[in-house]
């Protein structure tokens, strides 16, 4: 069977080839499970017929549908294929040999030997935690396979390209002072673009500036007597800032905890400061305007904000996990490969996984489950230790994007809803932070709401948001904005109200480890830490030394 696909110059990282010869019949028939066992031949050439690569064996994944077998080839595994430098289209021609697996419709053949793969460690989930675990394995020279059910790495930290715009999947920012991230990421290569250290707060029909007096001294003085809290509130902010900056992270994450709201009140902040600034600001970070999240996370984020900057990578928030994936060994990431179940050996020790297509992957040293909480619970069942906060529904958010011809705000600053009215929590214009988020001459508008608003259609929700924005910027401007896309993120963060037990042991049992923000804390940095610690625990069980 052979398929050909032509793609144009761009930054796409995958090619999907449809092998019509593998058609499984009509839509009513049960799908036949195919496993691509070997790629007979693949050639990649520019359209002017100059060969780039021939007869290469590459890693691939396949899915089946009534229309045929669809193969995804990761071009980065094609050595010497400089696609990003091509100015013309690229032709990919491939032929593939397939093997039909016997088994049920759900893809579980009951036979993990056939078509199986062996490796040292299987990591399930290519979000930040899974990528951090993979990075640690690579550093320690441990063979591994990172298995991801979706079509890309990053988990919730992803960016879509749409009509020339970069749309992050929900409101996300990256704080440069995250300690683990500083060890893991190449900030210069990410080309981080910085926010203004402060915010514009909508209250009483006008925007009022709140500024970090250390970085914006004049603006800080000017904000002392605005209605967003009192002058005393601003002084208390400075005191809390200094205290958080010098407190060690481990001490913060193991300290006595309460809710953010209780902590703010105990610090002496006025109700006006809490309602008009802290609710929308930290409500936007933790998707919790009621401020019931643990005070430990408040202190940790406050520390990072004091020592670093809010930023966006020029290529979108998804550039962070992509950078991590790009540094992993060739062929170590398997996409579009959802794990159906964990596999055990004769002694009852977790020894690998079975994919939904029936293929088994055995792990010599162990399995690291790095998925979101609900998926981890599905795979581990009763073995996954829970806490009261894990059992609660996760935090959710909705993000709407609009295209505009110009921005009413010409600085890289966050806008907060300091009133008790409306559904908008916060918004900003990403192109004022990173112009690369939109085509030339266009402005990107990002509006964030808390919750899913499940009983409201996208069009109704857009109308409600527009009505609210008209009161902020005027109808003439807002009515000219074109709606691009609405994201409803059902699992934006795990619910982390006290008691949280943030420092959780990643070891479930011999050969089985779990990591992710649901096991540590709901921040970028915590996901990275939990992935690393899971592999360190695995290596300790195997009596091997980890390179920190």
UniProtKB/TrEMBL annotation:
<dbReference type="GO" id="GO:0016491">
    <property type="term" value="F:oxidoreductase activity"/>
</dbReference>
<feature type="region of interest" description="Disordered">
    <location>
        <begin position="95"/>
        <end position="116"/>
    </location>
</feature>
<protein>
    <recommendedName>
        <fullName>Amine oxidase domain-containing protein</fullName>
    </recommendedName>
</protein>
<dbReference type="InterPro" id="IPR002937">
    <property type="entry name" value="Amino_oxidase"/>
</dbReference>
<feature type="domain" description="Amine oxidase">
    <location>
        <begin position="128"/>
        <end position="539"/>
    </location>
</feature>
<dbReference type="Pfam" id="PF01593">
    <property type="entry name" value="Amino_oxidase"/>
</dbReference>
<dbReference type="InterPro" id="IPR036188">
    <property type="entry name" value="FAD/NAD-bd_sf"/>
</dbReference>
<feature type="compositionally biased region" description="Polar residues">
    <location>
        <begin position="97"/>
        <end position="114"/>
    </location>
</feature>
């Amino acid at each position: 069977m052979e398929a050909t696909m032509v793609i144009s110059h761009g930054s796409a990282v995958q090619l999907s080839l449809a092998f019509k010869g593998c058609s499984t019949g009509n839509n009513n028939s049960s799908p036949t499970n195919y496993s691509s066992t070997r790629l007979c031949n693949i050639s990649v050439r520019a359209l002017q017929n100059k060969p780039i690569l021939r007869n290469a064996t590459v890693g691939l994944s396949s899915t089946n549908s009534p229309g045929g077998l669809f193969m995804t080839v990761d071009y980065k595994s094609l050595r010497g294929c400089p696609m990003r430098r091509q100015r013309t289209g690229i032709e990919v021609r491939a032929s593939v040999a397939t093997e039909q697996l016997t088994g049920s419709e759900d893809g579980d053949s009951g036979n993990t030997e056939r078509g199986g793969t062996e490796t040292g460690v299987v990591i399930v989930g290519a979000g930040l935690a899974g990528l951090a675990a993979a990075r640690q394995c690579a550093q320690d020279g441990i063979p591994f396979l990172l298995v991801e059910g979706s079509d890309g790495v990053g988990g919730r930290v992803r960016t879509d390209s749409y009509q020339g715009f970069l749309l992050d999947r929900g409101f996300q920012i990256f704080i440069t002072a995250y300690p683990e991230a500083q060890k893991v990421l190449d900030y210069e290569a990410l080309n981080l673009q910085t926010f203004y250290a402060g915010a514009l707060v909508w209250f009483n029909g006008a925007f009022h500036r709140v500024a970090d007096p250390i970085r914006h001294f004049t603006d800080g003085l000017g904000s002392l007597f605005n209605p967003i809290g009192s002058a005393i509130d601003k002084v208390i902010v400075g005191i809390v800032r200094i205290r958080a900056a010098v407190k060690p992270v481990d001490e913060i994450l193991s300290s006595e905890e309460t809710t953010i709201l209780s902590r703010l009140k105990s610090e002496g902040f006025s109700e006006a400061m809490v309602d008009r600034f802290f609710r929308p600001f930290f409500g936007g970070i933790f998707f919790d305007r009621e401020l019931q999240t643990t005070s430990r996370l408040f202190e940790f984020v406050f520390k990072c904000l004091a020592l670093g900057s809010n930023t966006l990578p020029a290529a979108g928030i998804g550039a962070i996990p992509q950078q991590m994936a790009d540094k992993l060994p060739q062929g170590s990431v398997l996409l579009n490969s959802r794990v159906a179940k964990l596999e055990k050996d004769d002694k009852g020790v977790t020894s690998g996984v079975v994919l939904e297509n029936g293929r088994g992957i055995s792990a010599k040293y162990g399995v690291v489950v790095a998925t979101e909480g609900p998926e981890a619970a599905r795979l581990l069942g009763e073995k996954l230790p829970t806490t009261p906060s894990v059992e609660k529904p996760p935090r959710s958010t909705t993000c709407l994007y609009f295209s505009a011809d110009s921005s009413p705000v010409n600085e890289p600053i966050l806008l907060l809803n300091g009133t008790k009215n409306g559904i908008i929590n916060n918004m900003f214009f990403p192109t004022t932070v990173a112009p690369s988020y939109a085509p030339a001459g266009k402005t990107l508008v990002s509006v964030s709401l808390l919750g899913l608003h499940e009983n409201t259609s996208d069009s109704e929700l857009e109308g409600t948001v527009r009505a609210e924005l008209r009161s902020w910027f005027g109808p003439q401007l807002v009515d000219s904005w074109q709606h691009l896309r609405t994201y409803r993120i059902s699992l934006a963060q795990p619910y982390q109200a006290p008691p949280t037990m943030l420092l959780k042991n990643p070891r479930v049992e011999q050969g089985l480890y779990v990591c992710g923000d649901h096991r540590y804390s709901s921040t970028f940095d915590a996901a990275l830490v939990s992935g690393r610690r899971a592999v360190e625990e695995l290596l300790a069980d195997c009596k091997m030394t980890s390179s920190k």
